[in-house]
Amino acid sequence: MKKALSLIIASVLGFTLLTGCGSSASKPSETASGSAGAAQSAASSGAAGAASSGEKAETASVKTVEDGVLTMATNAYFPPYEYYDGDKVVGIDPDIAQAIADKLGLKLKIEDMEFDSIITAVQTGKADLGLAGMTVTPDRLKNINFSDSYAEGVQLIIVKDDSDITKPDDLKGKKIGVQLSTTGDIYASQDYGDDNVEKYNKGADAVMALIQGKVDAVIIDREPAKSYVAANKGLKLLDTSYVTENYAACISKDNEDLLNAVNGALKELKEDGTIQSILDKYINSK
Ligand code: ARG
Q1: List of residues 6+ apart from 19 with CB closer than 8 A
Q2: Per-residue model confidence as pLDDT tens digits over 192-240
Q3: CA distances from 94 to 102, 205, 224 (A)
Q4: What whole-number distance in Å separates Cα of residue 13 and Cα of residue 152?
Q5: Residue extents of the structural domains in the chain
Q6: Would you say the CB of residue 132 lies under 6 angstroms from ligand 1?
Q7: What stretches of 87-172 show up as alpha helix (H) in DSSP?
Q8: Candidates 8, 114, 183: which one to mutate for ligand 1, based on the most atoms within 8 Å of Cβ?
Q9: Cβ(244) to ligand 1 under 6 A?
Q10: Helix H segments across 86-171?
Q11: CB-ligand 1 contact for 75 (6 Å cutoff)
Q12: What are the tens digits of pLDDT across the range 90-102?
C-alpha cells in the first residue's frame, strides 16, 4: 500500500497552493518516488505557457462551445464545491467559474452530470471546462489539460463512531465506499483491491451505505466529508489524511487558447484575493 500511496501522493505534487494550507501531505515520508517527476512535470506542463498570457484574460477572443457563453460541466453533489440550493447549482466552483467568465466577458452556464461524464463532455465539445473539485492526476492528463490549481484537496476516511478502523492500514479486508471514478475510488481500488471497494454514483450514496452498514468506511474529499459528517449523526472523520491532491479545471487539449485564458484569469483572481475569499466563504476554518 505504501508504494501505491507514494505514487498517488507523487501524482499530486507540483503545485504550490494559494489556500495557505501548506502542502503537507498526510505522510511526508512517502512523498516522491519514481513516477513523481513524470507526474509532476506532466502536471506542470499542462499549465505551461499560461502564466505569461495573464494580460489577455480580459479579451474574449477564445472559442467556446456556445458563442459568448462559458459552459461548465460539474457534478453538483459535492458540497461545498458544488451543490444545489433549490434548483440552482452553487458553491466554490460555480463562484470561481463565474469570476473567470466575468474576466473573459462570457456568460456562465452550468451543466450538472455524473462525475464520470465530465471529462468526456469536455473532450467532445459539450462543455468548455470541467470544474468539479477535480483532482489533477497523471492518468487524466493523458486525455485532458488541467488549468493551474486553485485549491488543495485531501482524501479523508469516514467511519462510524464505534468503528475499530483508526488508520488507513486498518482498511485492509474491509468494505470501502467511494464515488465512482473519483480519486478516492482509484486509490482505494489500488490499495485495497477492487473487490473491497463499493462504487456509488454520488458521494452521498456512499455515506448512506456506511450509515446502513453496507460498507465499513468511505474515502472521499475532505470538504464534502466534513459536511456529510456534520449532517449525519454517528459518523466521524479519521485524523489521518489519506492523500493530499490539487484541484484544477479540466479543459480540452484542443483548446489551448481557453486554457491560457483561464490560467490568465485564475492568476489575476489569485493575486487580487478573489479565489481565497471564495474559498473562505464556503470553507470553515479548520
Ligand atoms: N477530487 C476527486 C476527484 O477528482 C473527487 C471529485 C468529485 N467531484 C464532484 N463534483 N463530485 O476524483
Answers
A1: 151, 152, 276, 279
A2: 999 999 999 999 999 999 999 999 999 999 999 999 999 999 999 998 8
A3: 12, 23, 16
A4: 10
A5: 6-152+245-282, 153-244
A6: yes
A7: 92-104, 118-123, 138-143
A8: 183
A9: no
A10: 92-104, 118-123, 138-143
A11: yes
A12: 999 999 999 999 9
Dihedral pair phi/psi, residue 82, rounded to 5°: -160, 135
pTM: 0.80
**How many angstroms separate the alpha carbon of residue 27 from the centre of ligand 1?**
21
CA-nearest of 182, 176, 161 to 78 is 182
CATH 3.30.70.420 fits 6-152+245-282, yes or no: no
Please name which of 198, 258, 247 lies closest in space to residue 224, comparing C-alpha atoms: 247
| CA 132 – ligand 1 centroid, Å | 6
Residue position matching grid coordinates 473532450: 123
What CATH number has the domain spanning 153-244?
A: 3.40.190.10
